[in-house]
From TrEMBL:
Keywords: Metal-binding, Oxidoreductase, Zinc. GO terms for molecular function: oxidoreductase activity, acting on the CH-OH group of donors, NAD or NADP as acceptor; zinc ion binding. Pfam families: ADH_N, ADH_zinc_N. Gene3D superfamilies: Medium-chain alcohol dehydrogenases, catalytic domain (3.90.180.10), NAD(P)-binding Rossmann-like Domain (3.40.50.720). Residues 190-234 form the Alcohol dehydrogenase-like C-terminal domain. This is NADP-dependent alcohol dehydrogenase 6. It comes from Sparassis crispa. Its cofactor is Zn(2+). SUPFAM superfamilies: GroES-like, NAD(P)-binding Rossmann-fold domains. Belongs to the zinc-containing alcohol dehydrogenase family. Residues 34-151 form the Alcohol dehydrogenase-like N-terminal domain.
């Protein structure tokens, strides 16, 4: 039996001048809709976007504000029209929790380009409630933006796939990475390492470009076929 969540708590930004001093804050959830999935959050990754938002690098934020959009948790409640999930399911939520679902972009599976896209945090639901992210105890999202987490992936590993992983998976999938294709990954960091893993899993030949010798062994373990050290004079492939 799962309790209905009537409020949640989160680590919120309350003063932009002290962006790293987050305060535990009571949060009001959006009005629960028939298509909504309510989730008790267990894990959330850290994204560079979180820092940019907290420091006001992308403009003034709605305060108080809870960031975090690499979310994993357990379903506690589903709306009457939800067909893909049930209470107890382990699921994830990325950088978006809603869109109009009616425009050309939405109907072409490009909801992230919808003019009425609703970001997971620092955005606004139709009922005027401000969206809050994953550094909190719970979240509600339209089922279209909720994803099942396979049993074989631990929650702590799955979380960062919902933004960092998806950011590189999407173009690889869109442009047909696979057998017979060569993929170059420039910069092997938070996104780059996922690009290597995905591209290899898709069957492509992978070239990794890095200026950091300390990453060479890890890059090999990730499966890159070729490593190019851009610090070497006159380096070439």
């Amino acid at each position: 039996m799962y309790d209905v969540i009537v409020e949640s708590k989160g680590y919120a930004l309350t003063d932009p001048f002290f962006w790293s001093d987050l305060k535990v804050t009571i949060l009001k959830p959006k009005t629960f809709q028939p298509e909504d999935v309510e989730i008790a959050i267990t894990h959330c990754g850290v994204c560079g976007s979180d820092i940019h938002t907290l420091t006001q690098g992308w403009g003034e934020s709605n305060l108080p504000l809870v960031v975090g959009h690499e979310i994993v948790g357990k379903v506690t409640r589903v709306g009457d029209k939800v067909t893909e999930f049930k209470p107890g399911d382990r699921v994830g939520v990325g950088a978006q929790v809603g869109s109009c679902l009616q425009c050309k972009r939405c109907k072409s599976d490009y909801e992230n380009y919808c003019p009425d896209s609703i970001s997971t945090y620092n955005s606004e639901y139709p009922d005027r409630v401000i969206t809050h992210g994953g550094y909190s105890t719970a979240i509600r999202a339209h089922e279209r933006f909720v994803f099942p987490i396979p049993d074989g992936i631990e929650s702590r590993h799955a979380a960062s796939m919902l933004c960092a992983g998806l950011t590189v998976y999407s173009p690889l999938r869109t442009y047909g990475a696979g057998p017979g294709k060569k993929i170059g990954v420039v910069g092997i960091g938070g996104l780059g390492h996922y690009a290597i893993l995905w591209a290899k899993a898709m069957g492509a030949e992978v070239y990794a470009f890095t200026h950091d010798k300390s990453k060479m062994e890890d890059i090999k373990k990730m499966g890159a076929d070729h490593i190019v050290n851009t610090e070497e004079k006159d380096y070439h492939i």
